[in-house]
Amino acid sequence: SLKLMPHALFNEMVAEKVKKISxxxxxxxxxLAVLGSSSQECICDKQGRIQINQKLLNHAGITEKVSxxxxxxxxxxxxxxxxxxxxxxxxxxxxxxxxSKYPPTKPxxx
Length: 110
Description:
- The chain is α+β, with helices and mostly antiparallel strands.
- It is 39% helix and 12% strand.
- The protein has 4 helices and 3 strands.
- It has a 3-stranded antiparallel beta sheet.
- Strand 2 and strand 3 (74-78) form a beta hairpin.
- The chain is globular, with a radius of gyration of 21 Å.
C-alpha cells in the first residue's frame, strides 16, 4: 500500500526516526535513504487529483483500480484485492470485547 500524509506529519515522522539513530549506524542511514528516495510529494491539480509515479504504483501492485482507505492520521491507497486480503486477516476493531473471566464486582454503595 501507499501512505498519503500531510507534509508536516511526514516531517515529524522522519524527525523521530532520525533522533533514534546513531550517526555511525549505516543500516539505519540506508533505511532513511530508501524512505527518502521512495517518497513523493503530491500536489492536487485543479480537480483535486494527484499523480503518483509508476515506481510507487508498481510497489503497491496498483494497475487500474484502487481502494482509498482512511487510517486516522493519514490515508492509504491499496490494490483492491490486496486490501480485501489484508482486511480479512486483520481483527475487527469493532468487535465486542470478550466477557471477563472474573465475576462482576458488587457496587460499594447500594
